[in-house]
Amino acid sequence: MGVYELTGILLYVLLCVLTVLLLWRIRKQKVNKPRLNKAPARFLETPTEDEIASLKDAYKLDWRPERKVNSYLPDTVPELVGVSEGVSPLVTELIYKLNAPEVSAKDIGQLIASDQGLTSFVLQRANSPFYGLVQKVDNIFNAVVLLGSAEVSRIVIEESMNKSGIRPSRSEWFHAYITSIIAAYISNSIGMASNAGTLVTMAMMHDIGRNTLHKNISQQEKENIPEDPRARIRQEIDLFGIDHARLGAMLARKWNIPENVCKCIEVHHWPMFWPLRDTAKDVPDITRELAILSVSDVTARHYTGAIEGPYIGEDYYLFIRKPPDPSRILVPELRRRLDRIRNMYAQRSIEDNQ
To answer: Which pLDDT band holds residue 240 (cuts at 50, 70, 90)?
Structure first.
């Protein structure tokens, strides 16, 4: 072996040793580097004193409904539930598919395509000015791709509820619609995109029992329905012995809707009356979905000006990593989308009245 070859080998070995020492030093510096306990950017805003006071008082209530879901049912309940017709098995299957994280747009399209009447309705709605699509949609698969599975499911659920005899008012559908938009936004923003379909279903159906109850009260009582959600629930229980959330869950079970959806409908107002630690003991399997649905419901009513304030404790907001203030959840991007939907609903109302 020549001198030059030996020198080259020694230089190569020296270079390898220096590289290893350098990597070891860099790794040691990273390990010893102090960790900064930085708060997430979304929580950098400090709540005001008024916000802190209102959150502390969230559960200082004079009245609460019964939390036992298997308590006594009034005699009028079977009659109220029996008034509504069943929903199509196709709709039930669609909701089950949306409840599955691995569902694809193709699966949704194939299922809807098996019902000619529902396909026609979805295409008619897709081509309406409501969505403002540039080109006409001529098949259900394109409709699912262009509008998205969640949007098509909203159309299907609205149509199926109308056919079942529920027929909520335009304002009730608008609330359900924007609640589902907010719920999908929250689920996507906290890494629960696979649950977005389930939350859209829960949000679209969470108040289905209200219309059934309101059909059975006088005009004077309808005019005296309070905007405050807690007061409204108390009024329903005083009049019927049951609130719209529990009745809605009974209707959903009659239609064979997945149990996690039924349960969330049934308890979606609990966060207005009990802290997270209490509800989590009773419904541990849907705690996160319940928190998202309840926060979305309150945020939607805050957006329309129906209520003010958080209405539920900060524990639910922080559990889903959101600031305990509905106005701060309504980020500009989300607010613009809700504004567009409100304008489209207003246009539909004008067209219906012409």
So the answer is: confident
CA separation for the pair 297, 302 (Å, rounded)? 9
Looking at the chain, the whole-number percentage of residues with pLDDT higher than 70 is 81
Cβ atoms of 173 and 342 within 8 Å: the answer is: no
| 181-226 pLDDT per residue, tens | 999 999 999 988 878 889 999 999 999 988 888 777 776 677 788 8
Helix locations, 45-88, DSSP H: 49-56, 76-83
For the record, the structure tokens of 245 come out as 């959330």
Any idea what DSSP says for residue 116? H
Assigned token pair, 75:
């005699």
The domain made up of 75-85+167-353 is a member of CATH 1.10.3210: yes
For residues 328, 332, 334 and 337, what is the CA-based torsion angle, rounded to 10 degrees?
150
Domain boundaries, the chain: 75-85+167-353
